Amino acid sequence: MKSVLLNVRVPENLSDRLNEESMDLGVNLSEILRTIIANHFDVELQEDEIYNSNKFIYLLSWILAKKGQPQDHSEKETLVDLKNIVLEVIKDNQLPEHLTEEFEKLLFDLQRFIAAFGTENNQFRFCVLYQEDTFDYTGLIDYIAYKAFENRIQL
Q1: Helix/strand/coil (H/E/C) assignment for every residue in the chain
Q2: Can you tell me the mean pLDDT for 89-118?
Q3: Which of 3, 6, 13, 32 is deepest in the core (most CB within 10 A)?
Q4: Is the pLDDT of residue 74 over 90?
């Protein structure tokens, strides 16, 4: 479904409350506003295809399986497929900003790994725990939990 950009002016105190809600829930402001508007009109939002796809589930599973496991024995074609899924997720621009940044980190590491494919001691950096470049696994898990339960919890 095609989306349309809306520009809306709201009082500063309402903007502050919306931003607080967004930060509390770990989602971007656009997602909060889409949900509020859809609820007002009693319309179900169409989820973007990527987030309901098997390839996205595969990507999430791969990311979580890599936690603390920098070695990889995948074929280059598989890694290129993963890179393309990450690109699709980033371009979709529906994730909270902090997760988009994490997926960008992952993308750069995948590109680096693919470019050096087949070289000795080539390892992923995003999944090495307790380092500056480590992927925010907790943020991803919290976001998955939020998305899984958002339609079941009535506020």
Answers
A1: CCCCCCCCCCCHHHHHHHHHHHHHHCCCHHHHHHHHHHHHCCCCCCCCHHHHCHHHHHHHHHHHHHCCCCCCCCCHHHHHHHHHHHHHHHHHCCCCHHHHHHHHHHHHHHHHHHHCCCCCCCCCCCCCCCCCCCCCHHHHHHHHHHHHHCCCCCC
A2: 93
A3: 32
A4: yes
Residue in the block written with tokens 């958002």: 150
Residue pair 81/89 in contact by the 8 Å Cβ criterion:
no
pTM over 0.85: no
Taking the C-alpha atoms of residue 125 and residue 70, their distance in angstroms, rounded to an integer, is 6
End-to-end distance of the chain based on CA atoms, in angstroms? 27
Residues 6+ apart with CB under 8 A from 44: 38
Task: Name every residue whose Cβ is closer than 8 Å to that of residue 137 and which is 6 or more positions away in sequence.
Answer: 63, 64, 67
pLDDT at 47 over 60: no
